[in-house]
Amino acid sequence: MRRIVFISDLQMPLEHKRAHQALINFIHDWQADEVINIGDINDYTAPARWSAGKRAEYGMNVHQEADYTRRNHFEPVRAGYDGPYTLLGSNHGERPQKYLAERAPALYTPEEYREDRLLRLDDYGVSYKPLTYEFAPGWVATHGHARGISLARHAGGTALNAARKLGRSVVMGHTHRAGIIHETSGISASHTLTGVEIGHLMDVRKATYLGPARLANWQRSFAIAYVQGKHVTPHIIPVRSDGSFIVEGDRYK
After folding, report:
1. Measured between alpha carbons, how far is 28 from 49 in angstroms, rounded to an integer?
2. Rounded distance, CA 170 to CA 217, Å?
3. pTM to 2 decimal places
4. Is 35 left (phi over 0), alpha (psi -120 to 50) or beta?
5. Which domains does the chain have, with CATH numbers?
6. Is there a contact between 158 and 151 (Cβ–Cβ < 8 Å)?
7. pLDDT tens, residue by residue, 92-150
8. Cα gap 198→178, rounded to integer Å
9. Is 146 exposed, middle or buried (0-12, 13-18, 19+ CB in 10 A)?
10. Residue whose C-alpha is closest to residue 136's, from 1, 40, 17
């Protein structure tokens, strides 16, 4: 049986520092067969549409943010875990490329600003999948920002919409919501699709674009899954306000 850890929407340097450290401790202790990061590992604040024309647009540049993530995520993770690690493409990961293509096309070098190059993933033995990643038969991970995926009101619903579109069960991030929904069809209930949304690991207090009240239907969490052949059993792991969480009866903080 394989064990997988799913992470999404750290949005460094806006990550919840205590939750992030607890997660790294967990990865070191649990020694999963694979870690899959479903994207938005960086916020890339400066090229965001929320920053256009504001001080943030001229603040931290993308190379500084990429360096921050290398030092504070990949290096600590690799200090205690040498197993497979895969990062998926995402809307935040595409921000530097889109910003330069639209605002400074004469200076734009596509290869230099690809996320895998900015983060120097090869240095850490991290694989990169731009859109989808089939991690088990009939199951794919995708960030969830691709066109054609309808946003649902309830947690898990957007992932189920993606599963209907792709014809396979889906684990995704992007919505910052945490939920699992199953849908069964066919003769004798022979076919089941599952949509899993794994939440986020941001510090919402740093999300200034939400306004002073910081109101959002977001859930801080990540996910694990047990994989045996084509059978996948996902679990959402809620993260408390102090950054701690419980997996298999053990509390990590």
Report:
1. 36
2. 21
3. 0.91
4. beta
5. 2-248 (3.60.21.10)
6. yes
7. 888 887 777 777 777 777 777 889 999 999 999 999 999 999 999 999 999 999 888 98
8. 5
9. middle
10. 1
Backbone angles phi, psi at 180, to 5 degrees: -130, 130
Instruction: Specify whether the CB–CB gap between 252 and 26 falls below 8 A.
Output: yes
C-alpha distance from residue 205 to each of 14, 17, 174, 201 (Å): 9, 12, 18, 12
**Angle formed at CA 231 by CA 228 and CA 232, multiple of 5 degrees:** 90
Amino acid at 204: V
Quote the tokens at residue 35.
């870690």
Q: Give CA–CA dist 79/121, Å, rounded.
A: 15
Please identify which residue in the block is written with the tokens 């549409």.
49
Dist CA 128 CA 9 (whole Å)? 16
What's the chain look like in SS3? CEEEEEECCCCECCECHHHHHHHHHHHHHHCCCEEEECCCCECCCCCCHHHCCCHHHHCCCHHHHHHHHHHHHHHHHHCCCCCCEEEECCCCCCHHHHHHHHHCHHHCCCCCCCHHHHCCHHHHCEEEECCEEEEECCEEEECCCCCCCCCCCCCCHHHHHHHHHHCCEEEECCCCCEEEEEEEECCCCCEEEEEEEECECECHHHCHHHCCCCCCCCCEEEEEEEEECCEEEEEEEECCCCCCEEECCEEEC
Question: How far from each other are the two terminal CA atoms of the chain, in whole angstroms?
Answer: 26
pLDDT band at 52 (very low <50, low <70, confident <90, very high): low
pLDDT at position 252, please? Answer: 97
Task: Tell me the residue length of the chain.
Answer: 253
Residue 57 scores a pLDDT above 60: no
